């Protein structure tokens, strides 16, 4: 008897989780999930496409939420509306600034240099502490100065 009452309740509770996950306070960080993402001038498929992203993992800042649509800001400061389901809550970061950024073995300028990374490279963001962030770029992992990343820190 208990299982017959509990299972429908459990199914209903877990179905609400994705909806609740969409109801976050703005602004917040997200990343592009889709291989192709249309950014529109308004929150509907009826609005004109302003830009097309072809960069899964690219970090974006969500600045407004509206019924299945998100107003995002990209690393260049462009803003537009995208379908919420094509964004991921996984944090990403893009290397910014002038010249090559150093990816190190540990969170310090004294840590062994592993690679040099060009601005524009996108990776999966790990934790950040004391001005250093973990960054994974395909099979390469290391630490990079937080000031060389867009998508790290508070949105």
Automatic annotation (TrEMBL):
Residues 1-21 form the signal peptide. It comes from the Bacteria. Keywords: Signal. Pfam families: SH3_4. InterPro entries: DUF1058. This is SH3b domain-containing protein. It comes from Qipengyuania flava.
